[in-house]
Specification:
The complex is a heterodimer of chains A (114) and B (110). Chain A has 114 residues and is mainly β. The termini of chain A are far apart. The model of chain A has no long low-confidence stretch (mean pLDDT 92). Chain B has 110 residues and is mainly β. In chain B, the strands form two sheets. In chain B, strands 2, 4, 5, 6, 9, 10 and 11 form a seven-stranded mixed sheet that branches. Helix content of chain B is 0%, strand content 61%. Chain B is globular, with a radius of gyration of 13 Å. The chains are: A mainly beta (114), B mainly beta (110). The interface between A and B is medium-sized, with 25 and 27 residues.
Chain lengths: 114, 110
Amino acid sequence: GENVEQHPSTLSVQEGDSAVIKCTYSDSASNYFPWYKQELGKRPQLIIDIRSNVGEKKDQRIAVTLNKTAKHFSLHITETQPEDSAVYFCAASIQYSSASKIIFGSGTRLSIRP
Amino acid sequence: DVKVTQSSRYLVKRTGEKVFLECVQDMDHENMFWYRQDPGLGLRLIYFSYDVKMKEKGDIPEGYSVSREKKERFSLILESASTNQTSMYLCASSFNFEQYFGPGTRLTVT
């Protein structure tokens, strides 16, 4: 079945610097790649996503890139701020019978140092 | 605004008890999911449902069952709770691939 690997598991960056989180997936049929952010004590929320027909997508300080050939995708956060501290999950979606299911990576705990 | 609610935020049960976790969504979504979240393991899919009375196994269905009698409600059942089922359980519904999560139930089995 589909497997999603995420690295690093923890990441600490200086406020204002950039942060990069990388994921790889195993099933070449995956065609949708979302990123979720989970703040402490809160539920995960979608922050950005990318579909397989696009190589890059940006939304203000966050961007996601996708390399379908290599089966990896990355989240880039620029000019990091304290409110970026959270656990980030990548995911890959695969169509399964009448529904699609999403397989999540193991998460990256991002800490922003003041 | 999508609202997904779960019946309890915290639950403590004894080994061997039957446990019901309920999830309700108010957006008429067809797809609903149950995950468990453990440190370092991310969100692992237990079961999902794409229609009333329909269910599919996820990656870790052992020890769990589900019920979807109404579109808005998806229940997770632990037939005989064990200590290794102590975890955070997250329900979600989805539309157009985006997952909307509930607040989670932290279950402790003693």
